[in-house]
Amino acid sequence: MKFVLACYGVRGDVDPGVVVGRELLRRGHDVRMAISPNLVGFAESAGLTAVAYGLDPQALVDAQRNYFTCFFRSPWRIQELNRLARKSREFATESWAEMSTTLTSLADGADLLISGPQFEQPVANVAEYYEIPFAALHFFPVRAHGQLLSFLPAPLIRSVMTVNDWLNWRGFKKGEDAQRRDLGLPKATGPAARRITERGSLEIQAYDELCFPGLAAEWAKWNGQRPFVGALTMESPTDSDEEVLSWIAAGTPPIYFGFGSISVESAADMLAMIGGACAQLGERALVCAAGTDFSHVPHFEHVKVVGAMNFAAIFPACRAVVHHGGGGTTATGLRAGVPTLALWTLPDQPLWGAAVKRLKVGTARRFSTTTEKSLVADLRTILAPQYATRAREIATRMTKSTESVATAADLLETFARLRRVG
Questions:
Q1: What is the pLDDT of residue 58?
Q2: Hey, is 254 helix, strand or coil?
Q3: Is the dihedral of CA 367, 372, 378, 382 positive or negative?
Q4: Which of 106, 133, 134, 143 might form a disulfide with 201, Cβ 3.0–4.6 angstroms?
Q5: Rounded to 5 degrees, what angle do the CA atoms 197, 12, 215 make?
Q6: Is the pLDDT of residue 39 over 80?
Q7: Which residues contact 373 (CB under 8 A, 6 or more apart)?
Q8: 296 CA to centre of own chain
Q9: What is the pLDDT of residue 175?
């Protein structure tokens, strides 16, 4: 069968698609991937045939980071918020047209189109155009539900999320209207999220059900349309793993720090804060640079900085993990059985911070409010013995990564064979 995956965004956004694509390829299928231009080489290194898809996402990521930093720091700055929101909409509209052209060509003859949560609308429209099934890979709860905040009534939360779906649709309607007009499809009359579900699409929940108690029961009415499979994480070895493990073995277990593909505003300030906090606590720090350049900032003897590493191999050897609260990194920390501190920025990340707190394996706060003093306090909290004990217990209840990818691939194969289109 021919599977086409369209995954857009930074590494954390596209990893689940690459993981699934690699497994489908291993099973003998024809797998093609449309991916962010800066990650084509990454997909090809996993053995996949890949083409550039959309514009470089860095401009969008920067705009989103700046928007939500401004929103939480100074929500009264309406003009600045409107400017940043307009910038995101303009980027999306321009990128949407390029995505549609690329995907319409790539998807011809496909048995199934698969998308991540970023820009799933243009993928669903192309699937509708070709009258082929559509599947989504969601690594956090994207669809409306009532389990977001335990202290608010479920009907209220569902209503707010439904309104948010409608507002997003209205905000990006220009790009979708143009695409559907070019494809000869009727004009959309409602949010894509609703249309995707009503069409009978497969909406794989690529995270563990235990992270969001009550969600599976609420969504049971969809008759298996939203199955939980566990996190889809790469777990690929890197050139630095052996060196990092040797460094860890030479001293006390370190605390891991990493903030994903989105660069921090000041690498020097960040490293100074980490170094100062760990010095106060008598701890070593292991920092994964990822999207931030630490090469020209002062380093500390008790802090090791590495460009990339295999989290699945490194996290179990750490005392705790501190990160941005991305779904894949959170799942890897939970699977490793170590306490977590989530310092979040983007809107999906507080969901994982809340899950970490709900599971009693760590705590969370907004990244922009973090100081050396708050970092010391949060680290003291999660380094308490009860958090380590609880983290080890939760690890035994997490879905293993090999099981997650096998289950996801099974579901996609079955769905493609059924060719169920509403």
A1: 73
A2: coil
A3: positive
A4: 134
A5: 40
A6: yes
A7: none
A8: 29
A9: 84
Residues 188, 178, 4, 167: is their CA dihedral positive or negative? negative
How many Cβ atoms from other residues are within 10 Å of residue 252's Cβ?
A: 11
Exposure string (b/e) for 19-58, b if CB count within 10 Å is 16 or more? bbbbbbbeeebebbbbbbbebbebbeebebebbebbbebb
The encoded tokens of residue 117 equal: 């949560």
Lowest mean pLDDT across 154-163, 184-193, 269-278, 370-379: 154-163
* pTM for this model (two decimals): 0.91
E-only strand ranges, 158-227 = 202-205
Query: Which residue, among 405, 118, 349, has the nearest Cα to 233 in the 3D structure?
Result: 405
Closest by Cα among 247, 259, 315 to 290: 259
Sole residue written with tokens 């797998």: 31
Q: Per the structure block, which two tokens stand in for 334?
A: 């939970």
Is the pLDDT assigned to residue 20 strictly greater than 90?
yes
Q: Are strands 134-138 and 112-115 parallel, antiparallel or unpaired?
A: parallel
Closest CA to 125 of 42, 55, 209, 201: 201
| pLDDT band at residue 155 under the 50/70/90 scheme | confident
Question: Per the structure block, which two tokens stand in for 317?
Answer: 């050897």
Contacts of 128 (CB under 8 A, 6+ apart): 134, 185, 199
For 134, the 3-state DSSP assignment is strand
Provide the token pair at 336. Answer: 């490793």
* The token pair that represents 304 in the structure block: 């090791």
Can you read off the two tokens belonging to residue 251? Answer: 């001293």
Task: For 61-86, write each residue's pLDDT tens digit.
Answer: 776 666 666 666 666 777 776 777 77
Classified as helix, coil or strand, 84 is: helix
Residue 355 DSSP SS3: helix
The answer to whether 229 touches 135, Cβ cutoff 8 Å, is no
User: Can you read off the two tokens belonging to residue 397?
Assistant: 């209840």
| pLDDT tens digit sequence for 206-215 | 999 999 999 9
* β partners of residue 2: 30
Give dist(CA 381, CA 340) in Å, integer.
10
HSE-CB for 230 with a 13 A CA cutoff: 18
Cβ-contact 379, 320 below 8 angstroms: yes
* CB of 200 closer than 8 Å to CB of 225: yes
Q: For residues 57 and 193, which has the higher predicted lDDT (pLDDT)?
A: 193
List, in order of start, the domains of the chain with CATH numbers.
Answer: 2-231+401-418 (3.40.50.2000), 241-395 (3.40.50.2000)
CA–CA gap between residue 363 and residue 378 (Å, rounded): 7
**Neighbouring residues of 239: CB distance < 8 A, sequence distance ≥ 6:** none
Give the separation between CA 277 and CA 283, rounded to whole angstroms: 9
